[in-house]
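Lecture notes, part 5. Sequence design as translation. It can be helpful to think of inverse folding as translation between two languages: the language of shapes and the language of residues. The source text, in C-alpha cells, appears below.
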C-alpha cells in the first residue's frame, strides 16, 4: 500500500471513531493526505518504470526473445539496431512516467473530494450510534479507500500496457530496417481471463501486407483477404491490447493467395 492510501485509511478511521467535530479537524486531515500524496515523488515512479521497462527490453533484445517474431533476421542486425531500439525504450519510459503522474493527480483529487464530502457529513461521535448510520458510513469509507488504492493499480496497468507498446515499437524498428513484406497477427484470445477485443480475435493468424514493400514493387505479391497492415490498428496501439505480430521477410513464407503470377514464376525460377 502506498503512503497516500495509508494516510487516507487513518483519516477515515479517525472520523469513524470521532465523528465530525470541527472544520479545523477536517482541514488538518486534508493537509495530511495531501502531504502523503506529494511525499511520493515523480522520482519514485521514474525508477520503478525504468526498472520494469528495461527488464522487458533486456528479455526481448539482449536475450533475443524478439528473434522469434523476426524469423530470418540475423542476430547481428538486431545488435546493430540497438541505438534505435534504445531510443524507443527511453521514449516509453518518459510516456509512462507522464501517464502515471496524470493518473495519480486525478486519484488524489478524487479521493480528497470524496473524503471531504464524506467526513463533513458525519454526525458527532455521540450520535453516530443513535442514528444507526454506521453501515452506510462504512460503505462510503470503503469507497474512498478504494480510490486511494486505485492509484497503485493504475500505475501497474500503465506499466504493463507501455511494456506491450515498447515491444511493438522495437519490433517495428527491426521490421522496417530489414524490409519485412508482411506480418501475421497473433491474439491472446485463448488465454484464460484475457479480456480480448472481438475484432482482434478475428485478426488472429491473418497475414497483412506491408504497403510498398520490395516484393510488391517487383510485382511478386499483392494484398490477401486481410489487406494491408496499415489499414488496421497496430498491435499494442489500443489500450491494453497485448496482440503482437510476427514478421515475414521472404516470399516462401507468404500465403499462396498473396503471390501474383509473376511471383509464382519467380519462385519457380529460383527453385530451378
Ligand atoms: Zn489486441
Amino acid at each position: 500500500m502506498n503512503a497516500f492510501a495509508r494516510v487516507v485509511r487513518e483519516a477515515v478511521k479517525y472520523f469513524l471513531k470521532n465523528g465530525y467535530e470541527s472544520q479545523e479537524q477536517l482541514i488538518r486531515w486534508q493537509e495530511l493526505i495531501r502531504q502523503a500524496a506529494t511525499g511520493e515523488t515523480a522520482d519514485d515512479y521514474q525508477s520503478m518504470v525504468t526498472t520494469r521497462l528495461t527488464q522487458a527490453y533486456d528479455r526481448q533484445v539482449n536475450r533475443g526473445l524478439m528473434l522469434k517474431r523476426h524469423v530470418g533476421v540475423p542476430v547481428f542486425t538486431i545488435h546493430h539496431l540497438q541505438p534505435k531500439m534504445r531510443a524507443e525504450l527511453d521514449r516509453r519510459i518518459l510516456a509512462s512516467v507522464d501517464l502515471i503522474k496524470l493518473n495519480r493527480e486525478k486519484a488524489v483529487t478524487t479521493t480528497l473530494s470524496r473524503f471531504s464530502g464524506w467526513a463533513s457529513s458525519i454526525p458527532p461521535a455521540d450520535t453516530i450510534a443513535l442514528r444507526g448510520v454506521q453501515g452506510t458510513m462504512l460503505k462510503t469509507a470503503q469507497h474512498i479507500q478504494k480510490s486511494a488504492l486505485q492509484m497503485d493499480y493504475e500505475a501497474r496497468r500503465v506499466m504493463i500496457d507501455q511494456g506491450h507498446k515498447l515491444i511493438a515499437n522495437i519490433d517495428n524498428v527491426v521490421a522496417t530496417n530489414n524490409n519485412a513484406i508482411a506480418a501475421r497477427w497473433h491474439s491472446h484470445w485463448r488465454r484464460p481471463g484475457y479480456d480480448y477485443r472481438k475484432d482482434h480475435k478475428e485478426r488472429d493468424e491473418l497475414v497483412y501486407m506491408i504497403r510498398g514493400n520490395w516484393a510488391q514493387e517487383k510485382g511478386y505479391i499483392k494484398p490477401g483477404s486481410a489487406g494491408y497492415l496499415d489499414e488496421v490498428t497496430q498491435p499494442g496501439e489500443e489500450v491494453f491490447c497485448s496482440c503482437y505480430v510476427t514478421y515475414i521477410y521472404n516470399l516462401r513464407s507468404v500465403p499462396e493467395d498473396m503471390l501474383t503470377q509473376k511471383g509464382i514464376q519467380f519462385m519457380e525460377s529460383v527453385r530451378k
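The translated text above is only one of many valid answers, since several sequences can fold into similar shapes. The beta strands are 182-186, 207-209, 244-248.
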